[in-house]
Amino acid sequence: AGITLLLLLGLSRTQIRHWQDSITLFSHTVSVTENNLVMMNNLARAHLAKGELDQAQSIYEDLVSRRAQHFAHHHLGAIHLHRGDPAAAEFHFRAALAVEPGYSPPAFELGRLMFSRRKYREAANLFERVLHAEPGNAAAEDYLRRITELTSTAR
User: Fold this and answer.
1) Residues in contact with 14: Cβ distance below 8 Å, sequence separation at least 6, in sequence order
2) How much is the CA Rg of the chain, to the nearest whole Å?
3) How far does the chain reach from its first CA to its final CA, in angstroms?
4) Interatomic CA distance for residues 124 and 108, integer angstroms
5) Mean pLDDT of each 10-residue bin along the chain, 155 residues long
6) Model-level pTM?
7) Which distant-in-sequence residues (6+ apart) come within 8 Å of 154 by Cβ?
8) How far apart are CA 97 and CA 93, in angstroms?
């Protein structure tokens, strides 16, 4: 019984090293499983949460190259927008919507981008898309209200 306990204690110590934090856990899981897109996404999100944009971007780019993933394109768009590259952000938001038209986060972000460029008709269509997927989304409703005000006073 003592030997079994020592063996289990040793195995527990080994396992605990993999569970230090989310990045360690997800990195280990990605390294021991093949093509685990969910864990790759979780790893990228853990890097985003720590502000490690380069690491997250690299993982999302890998995800996109393996298979067109709407969530990976959405997060790449957000990273590019944060870094001040709206053209790259727009590309990835549109790619996300091409893969999964009903996925509202990139529609919202693209709507905000179009609003900032004063492309109100396209922005309104995108916010309507968000509201179709998420009825009652206050932020999308607010943008639509602002677009209505801006376009009615411009006439």
Assistant:
1) none
2) 21
3) 85
4) 10
5) 61 50 80 82 89 91 83 93 96 95 96 98 98 97 97 75
6) 0.76
7) none
8) 6
List the structure tokens of 85: 């590259």
| Residue 19 exposure: Cα atoms within 13 Å on the Cβ side | 6
111 burial class (0-12, 13-18, 19+ CB within 10 angstroms)? Answer: buried
- Taking a C-beta distance cutoff of 8 angstroms, is the pair 92, 73 a contact? yes
Give the torsion sign (CA, 36, 39, 45, 49): negative
Q: SS in 3 state form for the chain?
A: CHHHHHHHHHHHHHHHHHCCCHHHHHHHHHHHCCCCHHHHHHHHHHHHHCCCHHHHHHHHHHHHHHCCCHHHHHHHHHHHHHCCCHHHHHHHHHHHHHHCCCCHHHHHHHHHHHHHCCCHHHHHHHHHHHHHHCCCCHHHHHHHHHHHHHHHHCC
Q: Are 57 and 48 in contact (CB under 8 A)?
A: no
Q: Which of 56, 113, 104 is nearest to 79 (CA)?
A: 56
